[in-house]
Every structure is written in structure tokens, then in C-alpha cells.
């Protein structure tokens, strides 16, 4: 179980699970094949994973995942309303969200969450300046949007990964 | 009822594809066209899945999955091209 | 077993999925500048196709009499790639604003 042979156990499980699901033959053979692929692929792509923070609080991570999924649905209803409503009344804004996160890996997770949820798309991550550039579709109060992102997504991520 | 819902879904996705095609032709920037192409690929996935439902076959699943994968790689490659530099860096 | 219930569920999912796919395209077509247009396809279209995927999943599961999860792989893939696409395109659009090409309107306000 050394870090060299098994650099990413979760990814191994994910690949194996995905393999079984896609092949759609739920036999022991396909599970073995999936595990084999899951073991080989992480070793091959090891060079791309420069830093690998570990989720220290898996249950918190699950809660965040559920929250993000719920937010995606809510966000879509909200965006649908904005898109179908009068375009002239939209106040798009480019926001700078200061980052507390020090790991680029975790910052990327935050950027992806921001892209999938309420009327915001992350445009750029500036790790040197510790900020996330976010475009909001409708932000009459930019400060409130920034505060929401920091409280709702960044704080839990910081807690989960501890960095 | 299912056939009615299927017909309506076909109409909605078809309309979406028409609008996306319009954006693809109108541009005005290259980024707009790349975004339109990506959306077109995703809409095509929806259409393929609907076709699979309508024809009652599962053979279309692989086509949809392949569209998702090639669509994504194509979009990233085009965006990378616009950003300048090599495709791999 | 509850085929009527599953039929209602599949029909509902198909309609919701189609509607969100269309809303994404409407956003792409009618919003005034590129960063705003980015919002429609990344969110609404992803969720719309996701709903159609779930509809297909429920339908094949019920007709075949066993759970069919493989359609979920499509949705999973789309949800993972959507932010990446939004990110590279936003970057490409910024590059475009700095070095506009002939014929294209750099501000993106057709």
C-alpha cells in the first residue's frame, strides 16, 4: 500500500466503479478488470498530480457535495428566470474573490463549484495574488455574492482539506 | 403520454439546436463560436438519447458517451488554439 | 410494477430536461456579451441533458427490469467537464480582447 504503487486510492475506486457501470455486465470478471485499470491509470498519470491534499473530513465533504447538487438545481431555476426576463435589467459584474486556500488543487475545486452554481462562472485563478476572478450574470450587490461564495463553499472546503 | 413527452422534448431540443446554430453563424467572436460548437455537441447528446428512447434501443448509449468525450476534447483544443501557443504545454 | 408512475416520471424528466436545454440555448443566443453568454450553456444545458440522461436511465431500468446506471456516466462526465470548458473559454475570450482578430468584434457586442 505504498504511495508509489497506489497514489490515489479514491481514483482507483472511482475508475473501477465507472468501469463496471459502463460495461454493464455485473460479473466478478468486469470488477477485476475495472480494478486493474483503476490500479494502472493512477500510476501512469502520477506525474500530473503534483500536490494531493487529503480530505480529512469525508462526512463534511459529502455534505458539501449534497449542498452543491441542491444549489445547482436552485441556480438553474434562478438563471432560467434571469435569461428569460428582460436582459436590460441584468447587472453583470466581474468579481475578485480573495482566497484563503493555499492549495491550487483545492482552489480548482472551488473554481469548479463556482462555475456550476448561482449565476457565477470562474474566469481565472490567480494563486500568486491569492484571488479568484468570477463573472456574475446578475450581481446588483457584488459584495454579497463574494461573501456568499466565501461562506458557503470556501469555508467548508478549507475545513475539509485543512489548508 | 410518454410519446407525447418525447415529441415535445424533441421539439425543445431541436429549437435549442437552431438557436445554437444561429449563435455559431453570428459569432461575433471566435470564443462565441467555440462555445456554440460545445453547446451543439451537448445538445446532440440529448438528441441521441432521445432517439434511443424513441426507438426503444440501448445501442445509442455509446454514441452519446463518445459525443460527450470528443466534444469536450475538441472544445478544449479549439480554446487552446485561440489562447495561442502549442496544444500541449 | 409501477409502470404508470415511471412513465409519468420519465415524461416529466424529459420535459424538464428539454426545457432547460432550450433555456441554455436561449441564454447563448440572446444575452448581450460573451461572459454573460457563458452562463447559459455551462449551467442550464448541463442540467437539462442531465435530466434527459436520468429519464433514459429510469426508462431502460423499468423496461429491462434491472437497474441501468451506465447512462449516468454521460452526466457525470458533463458535470466534470462543464466548469473546465467555461474556464478555458473565459480565458480564450480574455485573450481575444487583448489581441482581436480582423473581422471579429473584440467587445463581443455584435
Low-confidence regions of chain B: none
What global shape of chain A is seen? Answer: globular
Count of the separate structural domains of chain B: 1
Please bin the fraction of helical residues of chain A. Answer: 55-70%
Number of E-state strands of chain A: 3
Can you offer a commentary on this structure?
The complex is a heterotrimer of chains A (163), B (89) and C (110). In chain A, strand 2 (120-126) and strand 3 form a beta hairpin. Chain A folds into two domains: 9-48; 58-161, no CATH class. Chain A is globular. Chain A has helices at residues 9-23, 28-44, 58-84, 104-116, 142-161; strands spanning 93-98, 120-126, 131-136. Chain A has 163 residues and is mainly α. Chain B has three helices and no strands. Chain B has helices spanning 2-26, 30-55, 60-83. Chain B is flat, with a radius of gyration of 15 Å. The N and C termini of chain B lie far apart (52 Å). In chain B, 44% of the residues are buried. Chain C has 110 residues and is mostly helical. Chains in contact: A-C, B-C.
Key structural traits:
heterotrimer, A: 163 residues, mainly alpha, 3-stranded antiparallel beta sheet, 5 helices, 56% helix, 12% strand, B: 89 residues, 84% helix
Task: Give a quick summary of the entry.
With 89 residues, chain B is mostly helical. Chain B contains 3 helices and no strands. The N and C termini of chain C lie far apart (55 Å).
Show the helix and strand layout.
The complex is a heterotrimer of chains A (163), B (89) and C (110).
Chain A lengths: L8 H15 L4 H17 L13 H27 L8 E6 L5 H13 L3 E7 L4 E6 L5 H20 L2
Chain B lengths: L1 H25 L3 H26 L4 H24 L6
Chain C lengths: L2 H28 L3 H4 L1 H26 L6 H28 L12
Helix pairs in contact in C: 1-3, 3-4
Amino acid at each position: 500500500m505504498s504511495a508509489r504503487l497506489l497514489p490515489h486510492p479514491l481514483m482507483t475506486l472511482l475508475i473501477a466503479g465507472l468501469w463496471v457501470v459502463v460495461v454493464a455486465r455485473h460479473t466478478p470478471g468486469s470488477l477485476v478488470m475495472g480494478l486493474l485499470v483503476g490500479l494502472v491509470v493512477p500510476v501512469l498519470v502520477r506525474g500530473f498530480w503534483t500536490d494531493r491534499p487529503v480530505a480529512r473530513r469525508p462526512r463534511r465533504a459529502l455534505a458539501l457535495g449534497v449542498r452543491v447538487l441542491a444549489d445547482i438545481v436552485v441556480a438553474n431555476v434562478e438563471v432560467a428566470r434571469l435569461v428569460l426576463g428582460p436582459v436590460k435589467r441584468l447587472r453583470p459584474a466581474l468579481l475578485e474573490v480573495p482566497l484563503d486556500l493555499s492549495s491550487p488543487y483545492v482552489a480548482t475545486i472551488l473554481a469548479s463549484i463556482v462555475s456550476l452554481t448561482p449565476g457565477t462562472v470562474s474566469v481565472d485563478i490567480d494563486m500568486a495574488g491569492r484571488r479568484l476572478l468570477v463573472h456574475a450574470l446578475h450581481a446588483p450587490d457584488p459584495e454579497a455574492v463574494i461573501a456568499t461564495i466565501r461562506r458557503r463553499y470556501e469555508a467548508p472546503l478549507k475545513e475539509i482539506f485543512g489548508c | 403520454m410518454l410519446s407525447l413527452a418525447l415529441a415535445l422534448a424533441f421539439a425543445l431540443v431541436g429549437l435549442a439546436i437552431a438557436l445554437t446554430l444561429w449563435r455559431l453563424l453570428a459569432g461575433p467572436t471566435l470564443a462565441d463560436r467555440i462555445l456554440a460548437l460545445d453547446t451543439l455537441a451537448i445538445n446532440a447528446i440529448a438528441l441521441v438519447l432521445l432517439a434511443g428512447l424513441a426507438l426503444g434501443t440501448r445501442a445509442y448509449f455509446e454514441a452519446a458517451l463518445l459525443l460527450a468525450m470528443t466534444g469536450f476534447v475538441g472544445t478544449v483544443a479549439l480554446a487552446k488554439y485561440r489562447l495561442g501557443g502549442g496544444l500541449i504545454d | 410494477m409501477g409502470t404508470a408512475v415511471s412513465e409519468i416520471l420519465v415524461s416529466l424528466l424529459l420535459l424538464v430536461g428539454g426545457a432547460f436545454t432550450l433555456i441554455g440555448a436561449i441564454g447563448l443566443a440572446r444575452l448581450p456579451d460573451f461572459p454573460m453568454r457563458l452562463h447559459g450553456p455551462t449551467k442550464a444545458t448541463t442540467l437539462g441533458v442531465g435530466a434527459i440522461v436520468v429519464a433514459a436511465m429510469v426508462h431502460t431500468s423499468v423496461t429491462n427490469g434491472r437497474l441501468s446506471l451506465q447512462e449516468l456516466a454521460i452526466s457525470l462526465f458533463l458535470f466534470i467537464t462543464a466548469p473546465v470548458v467555461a474556464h478555458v473559454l473565459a480565458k480564450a475570450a480574455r485573450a481575444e480582447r487583448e489581441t482581436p482578430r480582423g473581422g471579429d468584434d473584440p467587445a463581443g457586442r455584435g
